[in-house]
Amino acid sequence: MFDIGFSEVFVIAIVALIVLGPERLPKAARFAGLWVRRARAQWYSVKSELERELADDELKRSLRQAQDDLRSAQQQLRDGDRALREGVDDLNRRVAGTGAAATAADDAAAAPRDPAALEDQALGDGASNGAASDRAAAYAAPAHAAADTAHAEPSHLDYSGASQPDYRPSTAQTPNDERR
């Protein structure tokens, strides 16, 4: 606080003894000590309150920073979720489109052929009689109708019924559990 050495304190004590006298000097020293203690206490109170306010401001600042970081992380998660859902939907559309085209090709290749139509084609005249073409149409029609119903696209893809893996520890005891 103040730079007062021993010699200055000694001079002040001698002057106080001469001015106040020996009977009032102890009371004056107690009174001066009381005021010095009060001044120090006030100084420490102001100092601690200032430090507390600075700590509160720092804590508020770090709390705001943490909230901003959490908000940005939340937004990134939402964006990632949205992109992932769009990617899954796009992939489902591609698979469904590819699956429908592959199924139609498989149905055409695997469908048994009408012997009358094969006979007409083997003759090579290009014109088939009406009975053979009627039989071929009747024979091929149920295969396409069955293919349309078997590979119908769902109107809404819902994954709520999909099972999720269970990562909880099992309750069954193993031989290693007995040693623990």
UniProtKB/TrEMBL annotation:
One of its GO terms (biological process) is protein transport by the Tat complex. GO terms for cellular component: TAT protein transport complex. It comes from the Bacteria. Residues 96-115, 123-149 have a biased composition (Low complexity). Part of the twin-arginine translocation (Tat) system that transports large folded proteins containing a characteristic twin-arginine motif in their signal peptide across membranes. Together with TatC, TatB is part of a receptor directly interacting with Tat signal peptides. TatB may form an oligomeric binding site that transiently accommodates folded Tat precursor proteins before their translocation. The Tat system comprises two distinct complexes: a TatABC complex, containing multiple copies of TatA, TatB and TatC subunits, and a separate TatA complex, containing only TatA subunits. Substrates initially bind to the TatABC complex, which probably triggers association of the separate TatA complex to form the active translocon. Belongs to the TatB family. This is Sec-independent protein translocase protein TatB. It comes from Lysobacter enzymogenes. The lineage of its organism: Bacteria, Pseudomonadati, Pseudomonadota, Gammaproteobacteria, Lysobacterales.
